[in-house]
Please model this.
Amino acid sequence: MLHETDSVHCDATCIGIRRAETADIPGLLAIEEHSFATDRMTPRNFRYAIRKAKGVVLVAYRQGSSLESTAIAYGVVSFHAGTRFARLTSFAVAPGNRGRGIGRRLLAALEAAAALHGCSGMRLEVRADNQAAIALYTRAGYRSFAIYPGYYEDDMAALRLEKPLVSNG
Model:
């Protein structure tokens, strides 16, 4: 799998990126709970994304620690027939691991996986009040192209962002 052995140093700790497995689901749910007040993925959503969906679920984890298999961030990208755009459907970094470059590195791995799948761009929705996520995506080259009013359960608007991808294939 792409990026399985690709690591980055964050605070002197190696971070690895790999495909998610069903054994990761409890950890992914914990990240969800600490990251989102509403619109959370369920165990069933994660199981489907990992096992059956057309897409990829990647996790970031600390290499060389006793908790090596524990996910500290994850991203879910889906590929849909009839469009050349991949869609980032969920993305989160566990509290205590934010601001260390892990999200940026994981996002790049997800984009690379989408490009290898033949996608020419990536799209996503982000809460209009999530300034940290908007800053991450903007720094990574995403641009806003639409707004969905009342998109989230609590009636918050979503910004729709997209980025062209460069194919390495």
Observations:
- Strands lie at 7-10, 13-19, 55-62, 71-79, 85-93, 121-127, 143-148, 158-164.
- Residues 7-164 form a domain with the Aminopeptidase fold (CATH 3.40.630.30).
- The chain is about 25% helix and 35% strand.
- Confidence is low (pLDDT under 50) at residues 1-12.
